[in-house]
């Protein structure tokens, strides 16, 4: 008797790979040298005056930041400028860490 072949269906056949949503953490939890992208709604938790001030200094939605010095103040680099943020503000800015560059 010939063996019967049984087709096994898998979820990936129909849905492709399952992507996890990006991890969002407070800016003040990044380590020195770590880079991250500021999330679109990250600044919504701040008062409008603080949002406007940060935007004027270059810290806006979808911008990339690098931590120069964690702690208080949390010193970050945005483009070629460095900003010192109080821990209370850095804790309310949600970011998505950027994976380290591979050599």
Please tag this protein with its features.
single chain, 103 residues, alpha+beta, SH3 type barrels, 6-stranded antiparallel β-sheet, 6 strands, elongated
CATH architecture: Roll
Helix content: 10-25%
- The fraction of residues assigned to DSSP E strands is 25-35%
The low-confidence parts are none
The class by helix and strand makeup works out as alpha+beta
Gross morphology is elongated
Tally of domains = 1
Classify the fold: give the CATH topology. Answer: SH3 type barrels
Distance between the termini: 57 Å
Please tell me the overall pLDDT.
Answer: 81
- With helices defined by DSSP (H or I, 4 residues minimum), what is the helix count? 3
Largest sheet, strands/sense/barrel: 6 strands, antiparallel
Radius of gyration: 21 Å
Q: Under the CATH scheme, which class?
A: Mainly Beta
CATH superfamily: Ferrous iron transport protein A (FeoA)
Strand order of the largest sheet: 1-6-2-3-4-5
Oligomer: single chain
Number of strands: 6
Explained architecture:
- The protein has 103 residues and is an alpha+beta fold.
- The protein has one domain (23-97): SH3 type barrels.
- It is built from 3 helices and 6 strands, in the order αββαβββαβ.
- The protein has a 6-stranded antiparallel beta sheet with strand order 1-6-2-3-4-5.
- The longest helix is centred in the middle third of the chain and has 9 residues, at 48-56.
- The protein is elongated.
- The mean pLDDT is 81.
């Amino acid at each position: 008797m010939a063996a019967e072949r049984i087709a096994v269906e898998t979820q990936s056949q129909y849905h492709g790979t399952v992507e996890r949503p990006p991890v969002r953490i407070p800016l003040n939890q990044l380590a020195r040298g770590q880079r991250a992208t500021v999330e679109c709604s990250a600044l919504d938790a701040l008062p409008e005056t603080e949002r406007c001030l940060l935007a004027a200094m270059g810290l806006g939605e979808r911008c990339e930041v690098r931590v120069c010095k964690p702690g208080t103040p949390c010193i970050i680099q945005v483009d070629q400028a460095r900003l010192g943020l109080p821990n209370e503000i850095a804790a309310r800015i949600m970011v998505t860490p950027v994976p380290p560059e591979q050599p």
